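question for whoever is on the cluster today: can someone run the full assembly for these? two chains, 458 residues total. i dont have access anymore since they changed the login thing
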Amino acid sequence: MDLNLDAPHSMGTTIVGVTYDGGVVLGADSRTSTGMYVANRASDKITQLTDNVYLCRSGSAADSQVVSDYVRYFLHQHTIQSGQPATVKVAANLIRLLSYNNKNMLQTGLIVGGWDKYEGGKIYGVPLGGTILEQPFTIGGSGSSYLYGFFDQTWKEGMSKEEAEKLVVKAVSLAIARDGASGGVVRTVIINSEGVTRNFYPGDTLPLWHEELEPQNSLLDILSSTSPEPMST
Amino acid sequence: MNSIDATIAEKGLMSSEMGSERTLYPYVTGTSVIGIKYKDGILMAADMGGSYGSTLRYKSVERLKPIGKHSLIGASGEISDFQEILRYLDELILYDNMWDDGNSLGPKEVHNYLTRVMYNRRNKFNPLWNSLVLGGVKNGQKYLGTVSMIGVHFEDNHIATGFGNHLARPILRKEWHENLSFEDGVKLLEKCMRVLLYRDRSAVNKLQVWCLFPFVTSAFYPLFS
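^ ran it for u. tokens below:
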């Protein structure tokens, strides 16, 4: 079995962005893989662009990091020059510009989410190729394949903040259950007029899905107090 | 290879100058667009799907857009390239308006502009991966044309791209005639879109239908079914 430890770092990933009545919730898993090896099991794939705009990264770790670094730099200058916080639309279009003009070299799917005073909470998807699409919610990364049906069924407009975050955590945890390239913990970022809240959900706080067992602290807890019975032949 | 100097990298990153550029394959694509001339103007239809390979990923993509006062563009193929074409057209119309000379670019002129853009990109082996339909009415004259990603362009009474070339064209050849009424035109488009929904794997059941007619200068009539 070839572990392929020299493969470029790719964030297999599940990323989700959802609008709710008053803001947005961004969610992601925390696994970064190099071939079959998990290079980082606690990565943070939701990176900050400005005070009010965050980015979910998927695909090549290097490509998405460099794109986000450039856009953060440009947005910083833009904020200084305009004298007010950048809008989500501007951030998303900068992401699009880099993704589109370098489409032959980049392999990264991105979700831009944030809140500004003009349009409120907005989510923009920028998949491979550099298309930009404003959507009420969007999913990305390899784990997203397992979530299309889930969102088709469960998504509704005008959710509350708590409902939206619960939906995001449930979705990422479902994807982690089935996608080998997604795993670790679930991280969420909630952005609204009041500010930004980061949350962290380790495995034991997530619901159990099909064929999953209750977490135990130690195998010793499961063994009966007396010595185990020999198997009958 | 790539210089680490910030200014050069910045210039290169914001434009398409780094490395040998060629679009190898499309990522998010739209399927067929159908356009017909009818008695009073032009009717165009396209579904609202954006496919990502075999996944029907996006279901609210607008692939028909008005251009200036007289035209309508429909695109199949890579959506990011279509969005870029819309930016080029936006600039074209803006400059035209800035002349403020009472003249405005009609569909024939816009079609010609698109043809040049597509053909020149093809010559550089870096095509915009789209098939475009350009329809419009100016001074009572109806116009309907198409441009492909390699610069092939022509005008006709009915146009189809993508799967529509194979499935819709025979229907249009048989049933199109001069002086189609609005109702008959819509019924004809609907027939074509139904067949495409049956037989095209990347079709979705949500449509955009636009109608251009000459009496009112900017009356676009979008219907969603």
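summary bc i know u wont read the tokens: The longest strand of chain B covers residues 130-138. Chain B has one domain: 28-222.
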